[in-house]
Amino acid sequence: MEGQDLPYVLIDHIGGKHGVYEDHVEFLEKHFHLITMTEYLENKKFLSNKIRAIYMWYHRPVINEELLQSLPNLKIVASSGVGIDHLDLKLISSYGVKVSNTPFVVSTDTADLGMALMLASSRRLVEGYQIAVSPDTEYFPADWLGAEVSGATLGIVGMGTIGYKVAERAKAFEMKILYHNRNRRNKEEESAVGAIYCKKIDDLLQQSDFVLLSVNLTPQTHKLIGKRELELMKPTATLINTSRGLVVDQDALVEALQNKVIKAAALDVTYPEPLPRDHPLLKMKNVIITPHIGSATKKTRRLMMENMMESIQAGLAGLPIPNEVLL
Amino acid sequence: MGEGELPGLLVDEIGGKHGILHGHVAFLKKHFYLITMKEFLEDRKRMSKKVQAIYLWWHKPVIDQELLQSLPNLKVIANSGVGMDHLDLKLVASFGVKMANAPRAVSSSTADTGMALLLASARRLVEGYHIAVSSGMEYSEADILGVEVTGATLGIIGMGSIGYKIALRAKAFEMNILYHNRTRRKEQEERAVGATYCEKIDGLLQRADFVMVVVSLTPQTHKLIGKREMELMKPTATLINISRGAVVDQEALVTALQTGVIRAAALDVTYPEPLPRDHTLLKLKNVIITPHLGIKTDKATYMITEEAVENILAALNGLPIPSEVLPS
């Protein structure tokens, strides 16, 4: 098959911080004629009619009205990851363009990272590493302690696929599991992980040693955890966020940490990402931040790419789209 | 209560670098008359007869012939933690002194440390943290990708109570579990965690994505993991050590990590602790070192002291000692 026969797919850029990976490009180019934004902008006249799909990696290229208007033959936008809060679904739909994401393939990696952050925070792993490698360290003090994960109480806010997988893992650490969700899970699911439903989020916040956020970002979950919620938490509690930065009122979080209203935080997501370099969260000893690596394993990113490719191919062929996001 | 009523318990020091934790003192004083090494040395004549028990914290005070000879009424030495490699068990026994460790208190906490290191290494958490908080690090996302934990193969070397608790945790991550141990566990126990016995360590090393070392340090396990063992491991594999530094041939480990023989290592223990500040292990990007976190939680340390007190009181009352350690 010659390059020209392959469908034209728009991507943002290749390599660098958030570009499409070189080895993924190699694979994708067997099926698509990839056009970067730079190439597109240099040759809009010729390319705008050709582009039939957008491959959105790490929320880029940004889809706005201008772009949609200039791509008359655009059929589908495939977005990496499970979150779709960065997409104006109504707008895209109004142009007759379909949308897909990659919901299931990210679940276990994200649950694993939630557990990694909880353990690292509780046992002070990052601080410990710094002590272990610091040029000033002469001995390891005996009274330098962390807090136990085994047997503690974990409150999961958002018991979707990812939240439930966190519960399955936490159960093996003999943790007591509370959860808060829009809908209650069924009895079998609850008893399989020993999870207790908290209809009111307050009950979960007041009893948990660890509060893990695993919700989608929607208008309802925007700033779900604010000053009030943080004050309901135990002063010995840790907040873990693997969903979206905007689910937490970040300024309220800074204040809560500074005033010891809660003990610590571990955040894979912030708003914005990355935070400005002078942000107080970056300097706090009791805060672990990771650069949105929830699904960042070689294998999962590869699967995400393959899923997106399948969705695009189905969309272009007029077939049912795997992982389609409906309004 | 006066000095004469409670049995004397010798400890190295209270507080300070490696001393008994301040939070434990009140509990200890309920049962014992506490004597620090400093007080003992300042008033040997009077103190030496009072000491009926010694409570070791972070391997101190050092138990040698001289000390044993100077304590005629010593009945028992209780060790905090489970490792006994710092004690000459035969020497102590030759003085008719009993020994005990604290296995129950340490297992969950140490298993958690093992899992914390496994996850942090696999997901490159420390590197990620540095990128997230640095003042302006350029990086390529493709270069910071980690390896999956869910569904990977974990090889546990040493399936005692800590190793078994690790297997229980790893099972929840849908890991495929292999184990190597002096003795095979019962079939029921294997089935409960889905663990497959590897009679030869080689089989485990060749198949595991994560190798977790959880053995006691003995002459047999000294440098158990050396050049040969690391070369048997997959180049994509991670070595996690939560036992004792001397179980791993550290020089061979440096070479293996630098030449890509294995992917990464996560070490809660080294030899010595801490490592000299110019040691290569401190500089390698694919190594996480932690300061012997094993049991370093408020809960676990307190439980250790409770378990030690239980052992000491049993010994002093001539009752069976719950966690007695006999010289092999």
Structure description:
The complex is a heterodimer of chains A (327) and B (328). The two termini of chain A are 36 Å apart. In chain A, 48% of the residues are buried. Chain A has helices at 22-28, 37-42, 44-47, 65-70, 89-94, 107-122, 125-133, 161-171, 187-193, 201-207, 227-232, 250-258, 298-317; strands at 8-11, 33-36, 51-56, 76-79, 98-100, 153-157, 176-180, 195-197, 210-213, 238-241, 264-267, 287-289. Chain A folds into 2 domains: 3-103 and 297-321, NAD(P)-binding Rossmann-like Domain (Rossmann fold), CATH 3.40.50; 107-289, Rossmann fold (3-Layer(aba) Sandwich), CATH 3.40.50. By secondary structure, chain A is an alpha/beta fold. Chain B has a 7-stranded parallel beta sheet, sandwiched between helices. Chain B has a 5-stranded parallel beta sheet with strand order 2-1-3-4-5. Classes of the chains: A alpha/beta (327), B alpha/beta (328). Chain A: It comes from Buteo japonicus. Chain A: One of its GO terms (cellular component) is cytosol. Chain A: GO terms for molecular function: glyoxylate reductase (NADPH) activity; hydroxypyruvate reductase [NAD(P)H] activity; NAD binding. Chain A: Pfam families: 2-Hacid_dh, 2-Hacid_dh_C.
Structural class determined from secondary elements of chain A: alpha/beta
What is the gyration radius of chain A calculated from CA atoms? 22 Å
Report, as a whole number of angstroms, the end-to-end distance of chain A.
Answer: 36 Å
- CATH uppermost class of the largest domain in chain A: Alpha Beta
Short overview:
The complex is a heterodimer of chains A (327) and B (328). Chain A has 327 residues and is α/β, with parallel strands linked by helices.
